[in-house]
Design brief:
Elements: H1 2-31, H2 38-47, E1 54-63, E2 66-76, E3 79-93, E4 100-105, E5 108-113, H3 115-130, E6 136-147, E7 155-157, H4 161-166, H5 175-188
Parallel strand pairs: 3-6, 6-7
Antiparallel strand pairs: 1-2, 2-3, 3-4, 4-5
């Protein structure tokens, strides 16, 4: 009888150990992605673009209300891509034109300001400083979030970045205008 009880507890203990190991494995595999900085994820994707694309990071534009910090501006013959980065973790919900969106992580619901609106402020600041009528293309990149709703074509996850750029292929900006924009952006890099 004692051997049966001991064997029973050994099985219970082994099952418990396996269960704990599986939980640890699950938690680690879920956080592996977040061990890489969101900025590095985005930069790695931008570095994969071909020579037609010139990437400017940390662009600081002085405005009437302060300084507008733009994480990335990409200049190419197809337009000027103004990129806002969102490194939130969780599920993002809301609507494209709502002033705030919801983000839910582990059952806790919080709000965030609509990053599409922030991106529009960046574009407005650049348009004013450049003084040229050029095709600006908004882009909000989410590195770790799951987008629950459709926020329009300008809100994407980082893994779709190159697909987004490949959707633009018509030349809209002359080389002269590209050079003018790039020279101005060099002055505004932080």
């Amino acid at each position: 009888m004692l051997e049966i009880v001991s064997l029973y507890w050994i099985k219970i203990f082994a099952t418990f150990v396996v269960f704990v190991v599986l939980i640890i494995f699950f938690i680690r595999s879920g956080s592996e992605q977040s061990s890489i900085s969101g900025a590095i994820l985005i930069r790695n994707e931008l570095d994969r673009l071909n020579g037609n694309y010139k990437v400017f990071s940390n662009v600081m534009v002085h405005t009437e209300r302060g300084i507008s910090h733009i994480p990335y501006v990409v200049v190419c013959p197809y337009g000027i891509f103004v990129i806002t980065c969102c490194h939130y973790v969780g599920k993002v919900s809301g609507h494209e034109n709502d002033p705030e969106w919801n983000i839910k992580i582990r059952g806790v619901k919080e709000t965030m300001l609509n990053p599409l609106w922030e991106n529009r402020k960046h574009i407005n600041a650049l348009e004013k400083k450049l003084g040229l009528e050029l095709p600006f293309i908004p882009l909000v990149i989410f590195t770790y979030s799951k987008l629950i709703n459709d926020f329009g074509p300008a809100a994407i996850r980082v893994r779709r970045l190159n697909d987004f750029f490949s959707g633009y292929g018509k030349t809209l900006i002359s080389q002269t205008d590209q050079n003018s924009v790039m020279n101005t952006l060099k002055e505004y890099r932080g």
